What we know:
Layout (H helix, E strand, L loop, with lengths): L1 E6 L2 E5 L6 E4 L14 H23 L6 E10 L7 E11 L5 H15 L1 H4 L4 E8 L2 E5 L12
Parallel strand pairs: 5-6
Antiparallel strand pairs: 1-2, 2-3, 4-5, 6-7
Helix pairs in contact: 1-2
Amino acid sequence: MDVKWLGKRAFEALGQTSGHTVRIDAAESAGGEGSGVRPMEMLLMGVGGCTGIDIAMILEKMRLHIDRFEMTLNAERAEKHPQRFTKITVDYVLDGPDLTHEKVKRAVELSYHTYCSALNSLNADFEIRYTLNGETRTVVPASAESVGGRA
């Protein structure tokens, strides 16, 4: 990964594998110009993309059709520096004629416990919920210490 300073608080990151660039900047209140995503936003975006890719792939391997797949991620941060994420809530919303609660829950659990590298790299507690065809259910996650077998 290459990251190049653009001036003030702005940087441009170049993905070594993808070749895509992302602009990162601080808020104006921190001396930036607000011209890019904030670093902590990038972390949450990474979690969303990673777990979303996992779930879509798992459901596709089950030969299930997805009509809609969206998610909302919210995070709480510690008040003291380094102000790490202490809790992350992920709400998945899926619709599809073939999707069942059992299969969606299984896909979410596999992503959470086994496959999502980004999610498993963070030391935060997670609250995971999904809504399938209008019905919401909670997937009870392990604490941060036991995600991905970390203890």
